[in-house]
Amino acid sequence: MSREYAFTSHWLVPVSAEECWRLCERSLTTGVVAWWPAVRVEPQPHPPTPGDVVRLQVRSPWGYRLRVALTITATTPPRLLAAASTGDLAGRGSLRLTPEGGAAGARTGLTWVWEVALVRRWMRVASPVLRPAFAAAHAIVMRRGERGLLAEIARGSDVRNAGNPGDRESPGTTRG
Fold first, then answer.
1. What InterPro entries does this protein map onto (predicted)?
2. What is the pTM assigned to this prediction?
3. Cα(19)–Cα(26) distance, rounded to whole angstroms?
4. How far apart are CA 156 and CA 150, in angstroms?
5. According to DSSP H, which parts of the chain are helical?
6. Inter-residue contact 80 to 89 (CB < 8 Å)
7. Which one of 13, 31, 46, 128 is most buried, by most CB atoms within 10 A?
8. Pick from 153, 131, 133, 152: which is nearest to 141 by CA?
C-alpha cells in the first residue's frame, strides 16, 4: 500500500525533553489526553514498549472519527516513540523530542511524522477530491494538540507556584 499522505509537524514547548516525555507518556497510560481533546487513548497498564499496541481514536474537525491501532516499534525515552499504524490509517508514525536549551531555560522541539495510507473505503474513494480537506483536518488537529500541550504546561507552572499570590499590580504599587 502506498503512503498517500506524509505529514510532519513541529512543536516547541518550554519544558525539558524529560518533562515533555512524562506528559506524553502519562496520556498513554491513563488514557486521558486532557490537553488534546480530539484524541482518545485506550489506557495502557505501563509506559509503551516495543510490541505494545496503543489504540486511539481521533475526532476530525469535520465530524468523522479515525480509529487507529499503533504497534510500538521503538522507544528511546525521552527522545523517540515510533509505531506502525493499522486501522483507518495504515503506515507509520514517530514522535522525536529534541532538547533545545540555553540560557533562557529548557525547551523541547517535538517532531511528529506520519506516513499513512487511507484504509476506510469512503475515504479512499473520496481522497482525490477531499485530499485538501483531509490535510487541513490533520493540520487543525495537530495545531489544537500543540496549543493544548502548551496550556497544560502553563497550568503545571501555576501548580508549582501555588504559594505565589499572583499579584497583578506592578512592583511598588499598593492596594488601597
1. START-like_dom_sf
2. 0.84
3. 11
4. 10
5. 17-30, 121-160
6. no
7. 13
8. 133
List pLDDT tens digits, range 58-111. Answer: 999 999 999 999 999 999 999 999 999 999 999 999 999 999 976 668 999 999
Q: Is 19 helix (H, G, I), strand (E, B) or coil?
A: helix
Q: Tell me the residue type at 142.
A: M
Q: How far apart are CA 39 and CA 137, in angstroms?
A: 13
Task: Count Cα atoms within 13 angstroms, Cβ side, for 156.
Answer: 15
Contact call for residues 48 and 75 (beta carbons, < 8 A)? yes
Among 147, 116, 121, smallest CA distance to 64 is for 121
- In a 3-state reduction of DSSP, which class is residue 155? helix
**What are the residues whose beta carbons fall under 8 Å from the beta carbon of 142, sequence distance 6 or more?**
7, 9, 112
List CB contacts of 140: < 8 A, sequence separation 6 or more.
61
In this structure, what C-alpha cell is assigned to residue 148? 493544548
All domains in the chain, ordered by first residue = 5-159 (3.30.530.20)
Handedness of CA 116, 119, 123, 126 (dihedral sign): positive
Contact 67, 54 (CB under 8 A): no
11 residue type, one letter: W
